[in-house]
Design goal:
alpha+beta, 258 residues
């Protein structure tokens, strides 16, 4: 009986070992959790203050940007309202601009159609409608002999073909500009002493031709001379030089403003 009692006591105390192991593990777990949850209050306050400053600056920057955009939008809106108000007060100005734009387009198309009928003119005359008006470029080889400013028969034919369309816009300001290539003008007995004089004489002769036949109004036309300046192509080749020797007729918009 005694031996049996000892066996019962040993069996009844066997649970203590796993129990102590479990308690040890739980203690370690709580220590770890506590260490993770513990916060340095001083460092936390510094972090919170710095983070609050960053958020405050971000908010102020965002608001400033928002106010700037709002102000710009308001200014643009005011400009649009002002333009709309001006247009409402002066509908005739808007209508005049529209009518002039349409007229310039029609004349530009008419000029191009007239030029396309003659293959030689199509190779030597270009027409373009730009923001300031109609630009007509005529190569000098269909207007003048080399080094000369007198209009030849071919020039008169070309100018006559353009005349009916130009006459439609006789009240518009017109600029006639002369250009040469970069070859120095050389003559012993000629009337011109430089490319400046040659380019201006060519522009003047085209102007006088159109004023004399009443295609253009003399009070609305002016001339410009550029000599070899403002080339359209490189002067390094004969083809480029041929493009640069030209007379340009610019029919300007009446209501044009840069």
């Amino acid at each position: 009986m005694r031996k049996k009692k000892k066996s019962d006591e040993g069996a009844s105390e066997g649970w203590l070992l796993p129990y102590s192991d479990i308690m040890t593990l739980l203690l370690a777990l709580f220590i770890i959790l506590f260490a993770m949850a513990k916060i340095d209050q001083h460092k936390f306050e510094e972090f919170r203050t710095e983070f609050g400053t960053i958020l405050s600056n971000h908010s102020n920057t965002y608001q400033a940007g928002k106010n700037m955009l709002s102000a710009q939008s308001g200014a643009d809106s005011d400009k649009s309202i002002l333009k709309g108000s001006e247009a409402a007060k002066n509908p005739s100005l808007v209508k005049k601009d529209q009518l002039e734009a349409q007229q310039l387009q029609n004349v530009s198309d008419q000029l191009q159609q007239s030029i396309d009928k003659d293959p030689n003119l199509a190779k030597n005359i270009t027409v373009s409608l730009q923001s300031d008006g109609i630009h007509i470029n005529l190569k000098s080889n269909i207007l003048f002999a080399s080094g000369n400013a007198d209009l030849n028969d071919q020039a008169q034919k070309a100018l006559n073909i353009l005349a009916p369309s130009l006459k439609i816009l006789s009240q518009n300001p017109v600029v006639i500009a002369g250009y040469t290539d970069n070859m120095p003008y050389k003559t012993n007995n000629g009337p011109y002493h430089s490319n400046w004089e040659l380019s201006s004489a060519r522009a003047i002769n085209v102007m006088q031709y159109y004023v004399n036949d009443q295609t253009l109004n003399e009070s609305n036309v002016s001339i410009q001379a550029y000599a070899e300046n403002k080339p359209r192509a490189s002067n390094s080749t004969p083809a480029g030089q041929a493009q640069n020797r030209r007379v340009e007729i610019i029919i300007q918009r009446i209501n044009y403003s840069k």
